[in-house]
Amino acid sequence: MGEIKPLHTLAVDIGGSGIKVMVLDDQGNPLTERDRVETPAIPTPDAVLHAIQGLTAGKTFDRVSVGFPGVVRKGITETAVNLHPDWVGFDLGAILEQQLGKPVRVANDADIQGLGAISGDGVELVLTLGTGIGSAMFLNGKLIPNLELGHHPFRKGETYEQQLGRATLDAVGKKRWNRRLERAIDLLERIFNYDHLYLGGGNTKRIDFVLPPNVKITPNVTGLLGGIALWQD
Ligand code: BGC
């Protein structure tokens, strides 16, 4: 009888500023360091696929999970406001499968971050603070995919992403950005009445106010670790 070999998953996180990868064991534990390259200056599908290819060098894996910064349905990327218009309607799942010769599953980046962060109990909301603003929502561990809060109006005729995204943080400074984030959390709590809110993404390190007890910061690596969940059913 042949032994059943545990499957290794290459987790990929495509972000507006960096592309990250890590190999996970069948339980979702890291088998490698997190590798990162800058997102190409003109992040077309070709350029990003090329960058991913480079990051796979020297790594062995059986399947691939990809977090993508836009709406994803059945492996097809439908929006990509912080990448490039060529992603609209792009069959990332199928094309990456051809390129890497392994099965690929793709989901929204905040959805994956959430899958790695949540407890599975009650209403859980995730907000990611990076180049863009990502969001994800769960009921008892079940994902409601592609929640796009980031592009919803927040205040002063601007969306959450316009008020809290990376470019705005740089433009308005940490103090105003923190004040806005505090307001956003207050508003989201009143809309969703969540049991837990998880804040992820690189800009969580800029938070300088005391968070309410039901709000937690989730580490950056969660965006990769959550990738294992795409293979759990
Ligand atoms: C996109 C979301 C994404 C978020 C974070 C937003 O601009 O619309 O789908 O999750 O950025 O990358």
From TrEMBL:
- Family matches, as Gene3D superfamilies: 3.30.420.40
Entry's InterPro entries? ATPase_NBD, ROK
Question: Which Pfam families does UniProt cross-reference here?
Answer: ROK
Q: Which family does it belong to?
A: Belongs to the ROK (NagC/XylR) family.
Name this polypeptide is given: ROK family protein
